[in-house]
Automatic annotation (TrEMBL):
GO molecular function annotations of the record: ATP binding; kinase activity; metal ion binding; protein serine/threonine phosphatase activity
Pfam families, sorted: GAF_2 (PF13185), HATPase_c_2 (PF13581), sCache_3_2 (PF17203), SpoIIE (PF07228)
Organism: Streptomyces roseochromogenus subsp. oscitans DS 12.976
EC code: 3.1.3.16
Record key words, sorted: ATP-binding, Cell membrane, Hydrolase, Kinase, Magnesium, Manganese, Membrane, Metal-binding, Nucleotide-binding, Phosphoprotein, Protein phosphatase, Transferase, Transmembrane, Transmembrane helix
GO cellular component: plasma membrane
Reaction catalyzed: O-phospho-L-seryl-[protein] + H2O = L-seryl-[protein] + phosphate
Location(s), subcellular: Cell membrane
The protein, known as: protein-serine/threonine phosphatase
Purpose: Primarily acts as an independent SigF regulator that is sensitive to the osmosensory signal, mediating the cross talk of PknD with the SigF regulon. Possesses both phosphatase and kinase activities. The kinase domain functions as a classic anti-sigma factor-like kinase to phosphorylate the anti-anti-sigma factor domain at the canonical regulatory site, and the phosphatase domain antagonizes this activity.
Record membrane topology: Multi-pass membrane protein
Amino acid sequence: MHSLAGQVFLLQLAVVMLLVAAALVVLVVQAQRDVMADARHRTLTVAQAFANSPGIVAALNSANPTAALQRHAEAARKDTGVDAVIVYGLNGITLAHSDPRQVGKRVIGPYAAAATGQPFTSTFKGSLGLSVTSAVPVRGPDGSVIAIVSVPVTVERVQHRVNRQLPLLLCGAATALGIAAGGSALVSRRLQRQTHGLGPTEMTRMYEHHDAVLHAVREGVLIVGGDGRLLLANDEARRLLDLPADAERRHITDLGLDEDLAGLVASDRPATDQVCLAADRLLAVSKRLTAPHGPVGSVVTLRDTTELRALSGRAEVARERLQSLYDAGLRIGTTLDVTRTAEELAEVAVTRFADVVTVDLLDPVLRGEEASGAPAGITELRRSAIAGLDADHSLHPVCELIRLVPAHPVSTAMAEGRPVLVGELSASDAWRSQQPEGARRILDHGIHSMLVAPLRARGVVLGVVGFWRARGSPSFEDEDVSFAEELAARAAVCIDNARRYTREHAMAVTLQHSLLPRALPEQSALEVAYRYLPAQAGVGGDWFDVIPLSGTRVALVVGDVVGHGLHAAATMGRLRTAVHNFAGLDMPVEELLGRLDELVAQIDAEEVTAAEHWQGAITGATCQYAVYDPTSGRLAIATAGHPGPAVVRPDGTVDFPQLPVSPPLGLGAGLPVETTELTVPEDSRLVLYTDGLIEDRIKDLDAGLEALRDALAGPGRTPEATCAAVVEAMLSDRPRDDIALLVARTRRLGPDQVAEWEVPRDPAAVAPVRTACARRLAEWGLEQVAFSAELILSELITNAIRYGAEPIAVRLLRTEPIGSPDAGSLIFEVADGSSTSPRLRRAKVTDEGGRGLFLVARFAERWGTRYTTTGKVIWAEQTLHHDAAPEAEGLGEALLDQWDDTAL
C-alpha cells in the first residue's frame, strides 16, 4: 500500500464507497419521504371520504351515534389499511373509535383548525403512539361543523414499509461496490507492474536524481545496453566526448571515440579510475555492470583529470598552507595580552613556514596606546617575541629596542605597507647596512633568507613579523609572500584586539579606582578594614563606603552594579556620589534607599531612551546601607536586593541576621523600604560584602555562607586580620565577579564621654546649662575651648527656646579618633520638638537677631540639622586641635564684621 499503485487503488475504492454510500442514503431518505407522503395522502383521503359519506350526518344526529358509526368506522379501517377511523364531537367526546375502549372519552388534540372547517394533516402523538393524522370536519345541512373525523397511521407502520425495501437497496449497493473494487484492482495491478511498486516519493526522487545526473553533476555518465548501444548520455559526457546529437541508440564504436576508450566502454568488464585518452583530455573512467540488479548493460562515469596532475603538487602545498592558516586562527589570540599574542604568532609559524620567526612591535602598542606618526617615520621597534632559535642566537633578544635605518627591509615594509622578500641575505646591502657585524654573525649562524610582513590592522601599522630560513631550508619565493601577508593580517587583528582591550581595561581600571574610596575617613565609632578585588573579566560595579555622620554616627555602604566594563563603573560612580549626597542630608536609612531606588529608575528610563540611538544597557544594582550609633550601640540597616551582613560577636560566634529584603534598586516601584534595628555589643565585627564573595558557578549560596561563617569565626581578630582570613579562605586566584569586603569593629562612647541635660523653654535656663557645660569641659581638661564651646551651646539653646518646641534636650559628646594623633572633637546637639529647620543668613543692620547661627558657623568646624521622629536636632562640631581654639578677642571682630561701616 506504500506504492503508487496501492495508493491509487485505495483512492478509487474510497471514491466508489463514498458514491455508493451517498446513493444508498439518498434512496433510503427518498423512500422514507415517499412513504410518509403516501401516509398523509391516504389518511386525508380516508378522512374526507368518511366525513362526506352518505348517512353520516343522520347517524350523528341519531339517539346513539356510536352504535350507528362504530360498525362503519371499523369497516372503513379494515378496507383502507389505516390504523383507525375516529369520530369526535365538537365537545371532544369520542363517538366512534377502532378501539372501543376509547369511545366516550374526552380527548385533547390539535383539532382547532378542523373545528373551524379546515381539514389538516400533521404528525401527532395520540393514544396509538406517534402517528400521521388527518382530520376533516363533518358539516351539517346548513354547512356548520357538527363533528370531526380523524384517521391516523402510526409512524411505526410507515417505517415498517421502508424497512422492507432496505435489503434490496443494500444488495444493489454491495453489487455496485464489488464491481467497482474489482475494476480498480485490475487497473492498480497493471499500474503496479509499470511502476515497479514504487511510491510517489520514490518516483519523484528518482526523477530528481535522473535530472541531476543529466544536467547538474560535473561527471560524465553513460548508460550502455547489453548490445553495446548507447542508451543515455548526460550533458557532461556529451561535452567531454564531443558526442553527436543523435548519439543515443547508436553503437559505441560508431561514435568516433578513441579505440581504447570505445573498447573499454563496449566490453563487459568493470573498471575503476582507468585513465583513457579522449581527444586532448585525460579521462578517469569507472565502469560498473548493471546485472543482476537490472537489465544487462553497464554504467560508465567519466572525470576530466587533465589539470589534476598538474595541480596536485601545488594543491598539496596550498592545503598545507590553508591548514597552517586554520591552525593559526585557533592558536593566535587565545588571550587578550599583546605580548602573549606576539609569542603565539611566532610559535605557530615556526617549522611549518620558517625556521625562525621574530615579532617587533611599537612601544605604544605594547602599552595599549594608539600608534602615533606615519609608518615612514617609525625608526624604533621593540622585539616582542622570537621562536625557533637556541639561546646563543645572534638576533636581537626579546625586549631589546631596535633602531632602524631608512633603507632596511623592515623600514620599507612598514612604510609601503607590503611584505618585503629578501631571497639571499648575503646579497642584500640594505639589510647589512644597519648592523654589519650583527649581519655577519647571522649569516654565520646559517640564516640565509628573510621575508618581512607588516602587522597592519584597521589602517594602523603595529609592527612587523620577520620570517627567517636557515641552512637546510630553501629560500623564500614569491609564492610565499601571499601566505606571509595573510598570516600577518590575521595576527595583526588579534594583536590590535589585545591592544584595544589593554587600553580599555586600563581606562576602566583607572576610572574605577578614581571612583572608589582612596582612604577611609577619620571617625571614632568604628575600626574599619576593607578589601576590593576586581573580577577576572575586568572592572565591575561593586563599591563600598564609610561615611561619617553627625552625632558620631557612621554609615556603612556596600553596593553592586550588575555587569562589567566602563558602563558598570560609571554607574557605580553615580550611585556612590548619590549615596554621599543623601547621607550628607542625614536621611533615615529607609528614605535614603528609597531615593536611591528612584535615581536608578530614572537612570533606567534615560538608558531606554538612549537605546534608540546606541546600545544602552538597563541598570541593575543592589545596595545595603547601615548606620551605627556608638552612643547607644544601635545599628539601623536596610537592604535592596543585597546579601545580608554578618555579625561576629565578641566571643567569636557568627550570626547572619534575618533582614527584610526589598527589591533591587530600580524595581521598587515606589514601595517603602523596611529597616531593621539591631543592638550590637562593643567589640563586635560587622561584615558587609558583595555577592561575588559567597556566590560562584561551582558553589551555591548556602555553601558560600557556611564557608564565610567558618572564615569569620574566632574571637580577638582585628578587622585587617579578618579581611585577610576571609580572602585567603574564600577567594580563588581568578574570581569571576568583583568582590567588595568591609569589616568594621564597633566601639562605644563611655558615660564619661557623653553629657546630657534637659532644658525648660525659658531663656533663664541657658545660663545653668552653660555653667554645667563649662564644668564638664574642665573635667575633660578642655578649658582652652570653653569660651567658644559656651558660645556655640548658648546660641543653639537660645535658638531652640525661641523658635523650637518642647521637649528641649542638650547633649555634649567628646570623641577620640581611632589611630590618629588628632585630639578629637566636641559635638553639641540641641534637640527640640519642632520640625522647622533654621538657615544661615546675613542679618541686616537694623535686625536685632539673626546672628546666632553665623557665630555657630564661625567657631564650629561644621554644623547642620537632622530630623527625628519627634522633631529635629541642631548639631555643631568643634575640632580639638591645639591651635584650633579661637581667642576671645576674635569674637568682637567677628561680630563687628556683621555691620557695614558706611551704613553706621
